[in-house]
Amino acid sequence: MAANLPLISIIFLSFCYVASSFDQVSFLQCFSLHSFQSNSTSKTITTRKDPTYISLLQSSIQNLRFLNTSSPSPQLIVTPVNPSQIQAAIVCSQKLGVHVRVRSGGHDYEGLSYVSQMPFIIIDLRNMRLVEVDVEKESAWVETGATVGELYYAISQKSKVLGFPAGSCPTVGVGGQVSGGGVGTIFRKYGLAADNVIDAKIVDVNGKVLDRKAMGEDLFWAIRGGGGASFGVIFAWKFVLVPVPPTVTVFEVGKTIEEDATMLLYKWQNVAHKLHEDLFLHAVTGVVTPSSSLANKTISISFGGLYLGKIEKLLPSIQESFPELGLTRESCTEMSWIQSVLYFAGFSQDGSPEVLLNRTQSSRSFFKAKSDFVMEPISQTALQGLWNKLIEDETSYLILTPYGGVMSQISDSATPFPHRGGNMYQIMYMVTWDSEEENNQKINWMRELYDYMAPYVSRFPRAAYMNYRDLDLGRNYVINTTYAQASVWGLKYFKSNFKRLVKVKTASDPANFFWNEQSFPVSSPGRR
């Protein structure tokens, strides 16, 4: 009978006995036995009967597609405050045959940190978010439950001339962003967040706490861009902090396609990745309706940037390399680095940095995202076709992030993140909506947009960024997914690094306990 069922149904059926027979009492007893602070079990574990269960589960679900009653919910949620409680959760989950999902900030685009078709628990690291900044050594130990905003804030309170090259969204968890790469406004000078990791602490499948020395260089390599969820529970990172000048400059120039934005973007493609590494100039598209009610929708493009220096040095550089942009002194604002963090996060740069400590997004929506890498300029004709497609959905937008700089100098195999030299820029496609009834229509529209772009982006493979997770690329339907099956999506994220990642997975988690829809497969002799 099972042969006629979809594979995802087979998964569910094969594990449904666990859901119906999950022994919560035994789990709690096991957890108490293995946790060093056994008297804190009641505060650490939230069960389905607990009145705070729903609010805790939903608190960091960032994509409303997964905030509904049809999404599978965990048997319980563990919110550890120390490594021993993570160890206990892993040991007891294996003993009772229940899967684990690990959540830091809840920003996984496909909800894999809090949704599973198999019976599961969530290890939510929200209470492990200590940030210890050592200004003298220019480093920081950061617990995985901290958000990027909390990290930036902590640095700013200790130094005005140190920063870190992570992303712009302050509510993203450090754990997910760093383990997947981490692209931000100063990455052209300092590389990814993952490139600046010098140590880490992980609880492995055996319940052991390992630092860099104990885990070995292969596993340490894998978790810096390969995603942590395949290998264990990473609960702390040690970062190198990077120097930033006392004064930086931000700027923005906006144009519509009626104001020659298409020509500007075509020129931008040839310029942005060649600019000095101190200069970051990205482009963001949006669908707008002009003030005249009789006018049709059009595309606006915002060319926004950050320069690690003062206006007086920025303007000559832009006027020489990209005079068509028409950047003027009036479009530029000097500020501190932490103020630029506020600016790119959508806050007033004159406000208090304490706003970065808010772990809750100001608004949430239903959304679907995809990504691409561009290696050759897209023609103006093809761009016009892209605009025609985007205008079909006014909630769609693109973020075009220039590469080059130090990113072209780092080897493709230095970390699992392989998108280095040869990439001009990265595209994130995004569409948002307000109601569950729109899910299918919006997702199908996004797939059509992605199909349209196929001739103009990287090929063999058509590369993608893991932190913009996309299950359309492929997924694991069964625990014993083969290398060949997983390579359908794995080569797109990791290219030739995928093979090494599978080897590390096989060595560190041979029974494939840390499984999800895009975790690395376990290889065995003769099995492809």
Automatic annotation (TrEMBL):
Signal peptide: 1-21
GO MF entry, a single one: oxidoreductase activity
Subcellular location: Secreted, Cell wall
SUPFAM superfamilies referenced in this protein's UniProt entry, alphabetically: FAD-binding/transporter-associated domain-like (SSF56176)
Record keywords: Cell wall, Disulfide bond, FAD, Flavoprotein, Glycoprotein, Nucleotide-binding, Oxidoreductase, Secreted, Signal
Family recorded in the similarity comment: Belongs to the oxygen-dependent FAD-linked oxidoreductase family.
Pfam family, one: FAD_binding_4
Chain ranges of the FAD-binding PCMH-type domain: 70-244
Keyword Signal among record annotations: yes
Cofactor(s) demanded: FAD
Name by which UniProt lists this protein: FAD-binding PCMH-type domain-containing protein
Record's keyword annotation contains Nucleotide-binding: yes
